[in-house]
Design brief:
flat; mainly alpha
């Protein structure tokens, strides 16, 4: 086995096929390839604890590795993580996750056009 790592790229499938769990097959295939070709590690990429992506990766046996985040403000002042951009949206995210899917399909596109990714 080598010390090489396989890095997970972004995977996605068309929503109408979600019931068939195509992402599971895609990850399975990548893990199988990495194993068959002697890769020692498979890097699932970054996730924040308790987020959906974190839970998804954990079910595959991924083990968390602590990462250190460094923030640099444009004005040179220290950044308080409690008031960071992410935490500003925590309540909105929690509310969104509780909305019925038909409602998100209606209002989602209207909100998305105002979000820069």
């Amino acid at each position: 086995m080598s010390n090489f790592s396989a890095l997970s790229l972004e995977l996605s499938a068309l929503r109408e096929y979600s019931r068939l769990a195509p992402n599971m097959l895609l990850y399975w295939t990548m893990l199988e390839y990495a194993s068959d070709n002697g890769y020692a590690y498979f890097d699932f990429g970054r996730s924040s604890p308790d987020e959906g992506t974190y839970k998804f990766k954990k079910q595959w046996g991924a083990k968390p590795e602590p990462l250190h985040w460094h923030y640099i403000s444009m004005n040179g002042r220290p950044i308080d993580e409690e008031t960071s951009e992410k935490s500003k949206f925590d309540k909105a995210i929690q509310c969104w996750q509780k909305l019925p899917v038909p409602v998100t399909k209606i209002i989602g596109p209207m909100i998305r056009k105002h979000i820069g990714l």
